[in-house]
Write a structure and sequence with these properties.
Number of helices: 23
Largest sheet: 6 strands, parallel
Radius of gyration: 25 Å
Distance between the termini: 72 Å
Shape: globular
Structural class: alpha/beta
Helix content: 25-40%
Strand content: 15-25%
């Protein structure tokens, strides 16, 4: 018996094991929503903005390992997802984004809320297509889920015209799919891997650079075993943080623009760099001509296009990180690295990672408080200075993962991602570390958290500025703080160099704002109150209530070390 396209759509979601959809309604998806209303097996979460819905699906996907699903209408509903789709693309998050579209007969006629969303996202989605007929609907949905989660994960968009949702056709949904021209790599070239191992084992100053691909493939245990067996020091990208335990004697720290002094020096002075699961973006490499200048470079990555795109490597290995590391473990033997590790330890002691005290509440104190009070929470961050402080001072562990926007650097990511993670893992404490700038980009999602019974803890670090840009303005632009002061109003001095007693009040009052949602708002100004207030927030979370904790810090706190964009990574601003 034939069924409508909307019925087949819901049948497909159930067949794919989808239990949660993050959505915002509109005319071109009302029929699908009406069909979803009839099932109790799929929870539909109403976001308050489509961009936030995508970030919530990202948080859900990263917390569960499943594909996140987003459903929005045509026109502005679709265009509002573009930033989230790009974010998921750069960080390899599996998503299926479903957009409604005007009926096929209206496409190309500038109909109300008609946009070519497929054309708009073609360069950032892993795949995108408009369903052309009712007959291909099931195949296209199956294809979307398969592509999103296979190989290098990423977002796939399906655009479904309204008339196809209503048209009847076959009830069949394919159990498997075979796509010509799409063959995700599932093996490893043993010859290349043996070359890589031989080069690595011959090194006097070997170094592993671990990126987000290690965590995406679930290869943390294999990498840890390899490091411990061969005694090789490890540095990580921000997305690779947590690939090995930060308590390991071989873990050096994050590398790159705000990486540890010892990490950047280790890259600069190593003789073999074994990189795995990283794209070598400019935040890691700095001046490409000075990146690992003395090293032979091995690059293991699942994405063929990423290899030698930014850094020309000596031995490329196209493989999933877990598969490659598992094979390397069969050959791994100890190496004599004591002198090299001692040299790295010397760099750690020369410039340890710490923040100066004396400016009031220190971001390092805040992160250390979170570390103590929440040993097994999910942590998300927004983008900016607070993100860097979190990656510097808050260890990532198996029990405490950290989800952040690494590739695109999307302000507004952290809070909705936390809501999505809490929806996915209601038994876990979920903390969104954010800044006063980034939080205001998607703060409306407090309504989603409250109405979805997804209590999160917001750690809001307020320095009254768009801090990362302000830091650049301080160091490189003569303290010309153009549109980075969040207190600035008409009538303020033209050439303001920083706050004074004459500054207007900050808006909004975040504590009062939180209270308007029925959420407890707390403010912290002294280090002695950090743990006590975080314990209160934890108790609220266990009682099913969100909490916003505002930490007021000095406006001129900086993230250090810092490498000026385009400079070599060993040329660091340290104070």
């Amino acid at each position: 018996m034939d069924i409508t396209g909307r019925k087949l759509f819901v049948k497909a979601l159930l067949a794919e094991g989808v239990d949660t959809v993050f959505a915002y309604p509109g005319g071109m998806i009302t029929d699908i929503l009406d069909e979803l209303y009839k099932t109790t097996d799929i929870r539909v979460i109403l976001a308050r903005h489509e961009q936030a819905a995508v970030h919530e699906a990202e948080g859900y996907a990263r917390a569960t390992g499943k594909t996140g699903v987003v459903l929005v209408t045509s026109g502005p509903g679709a265009t509002n997802t573009i930033t989230g789709i790009a974010d998921a693309h750069y960080d390899s998050i599996p998503l299926v984004i479903v957009t409604g579209q005007v009926s096929r007969g209206l496409i190309g006629n500038d109909a109300f809320q008609e946009v070519d969303i497929v054309g708009m996202v073609r360069n950032t989605a892993k795949d995108a297509y408009t369903v052309a007929s009712r007959e291909e609907l099931g195949h296209r949905i199956k294809m979307a889920f398969y592509i999103a989660h296979s190989g290098k994960p990423g977002p796939v968009l399906i655009d479904i015209p309204k008339d196809i949702q209503l048209e009847t056709g076959s009830p069949d949904y394919p159990e498997e799919i075979h796509l010509r021209g799409y063959r995700p790599n599932t093996g490893v070239h043993i010859g290349q891997l043996k070359k890589a191992y031989k080069l690595l084992h011959s090194a006097k100053r070997p170094l592993i650079l671990a990126g987000g691909g290690v965590r995406i493939s679930g290869a943390q245990e294999e990498l840890t075993q390899l490091v411990n067996t061969m005694k090789i020091p490890v540095v990580t990208t921000i997305m690779g943080k947590g690939s090995v335990s930060e308590d390991s004697p071989y873990y050096v720290g994050n590398a790159g623009m705000h990486g540890r002094y010892a990490s950047n020096m280790a890259i600069t002075h190593c003789d073999v760099l074994f990189s795995i699961g990283t794209r070598f973006n400019d935040r890691i490499t700095g001046d490409l001509s000075e990146f690992a200048p003395n090293a032979k470079i091995i690059h293991v990555d699942a994405d063929t296009a990423s290899i030698s795109r930014n850094v020309v490597v000596d031995i490329p290995v196209v493989a999933d990180a877990k598969l490659a590391l598992s094979k390397l473990l069969e050959w791994a033997e100890p190496m004599k690295t004591d002198a090299w590790i001692s040299e790295i330890d010397g760099w750690q002691q020369k410039h340890p990672l710490s923040m100066p005290r004396g400016k009031g509440l220190s971001p390092q104190d805040i992160m250390e408080g979170i570390d103590t009070v929440f040993p097994d929470a999910i942590v998300t961050t927004d983008v900016g200075q607070h993100q860097m402080w979190a990656t510097q001072f808050l260890p990532v562990t198996e029990k405490r993962p950290m989800f952040t926007s690494g590739g695109l650097g999307t302000m507004g990511f952290g809070f909705p991602a936390a809501v999505g993670a809490k929806v996915a893992c209601p038994e876990k404490d979920v903390i969104a570390i954010t800044g006063d700038g980034g939080f205001q980009m998607n703060m409306q999602e407090m309504a989603t958290a409250v109405t979805s019974d997804a209590p999160v803890i917001i750690v809001l670090i307020n320095n009254q500025y768009l801090g990362m840009v302000r830091q650049f303005q301080q160091f490189f632009y003569g303290k010309r703080y153009e549109i980075t002061c969040l207190r600035r109003r008409e009538g303020c001095p033209e050439n303001c160099k920083g706050p004074s007693d004459k500054c207007p009040p900050y808006v909004p009052d975040f504590v009062k704002w939180a209270e308007s949602y029925g959420v407890e708002g707390l403010r912290v100004n002294e280090a002695k109150d950090i743990s006590r207030v975080l314990e209160t927030a934890k108790a609220n979370s266990h009682a099913g209530k969100s909490t916003l904790v505002e930490f007021d810090i000095a406006y001129d706190e900086n993230v250090l070390p810092m490498v000026k964009s385009g400079n070599p990574i060993d040329d660091m601003i340290l104070k």
